[in-house]
Write a structure and sequence with these properties.
The protein is an alpha+beta fold. Helices cover about 15% and strands about 30% of the residues. The chain is built from 1 helix and 4 strands, in the order αββββ. Strands 1, 2, 3 and 4 form a 4-stranded antiparallel sheet that branches. The termini are far apart.
């Protein structure tokens, strides 16, 4: 909800969720933000859409293929 003071924390949070295996490949995430102040899109997340509603926008991202290390 507005005023979106913590929107810049979204990208690092998404990276942590991805790196800890808490998001499945293809997972959709939505980040609501003020129009014109979208958070950075982390590597590995594809832009699905960014609908706008007045002064608000919603960044819809999809987690791309998750690379796993093999021993």
């Amino acid at each position: 909800d507005p005023p979106y003071a913590e929107v810049d924390a979204a990208a690092p949070l998404l990276v942590r969720l991805r790196d800890r295996g808490l998001l499945a490949e293809g997972a959709l995430v939505a980040v609501e933000h003020a129009k014109g102040h979208a958070p950075a899109r982390p590597e590995g997340f594809a832009l699905v859409s960014e609908p706008r509603y007045g002064d608000t926008a919603v960044l819809l991202l999809s987690l791309e293929r998750v690379e796993t290390e093999t021993a």
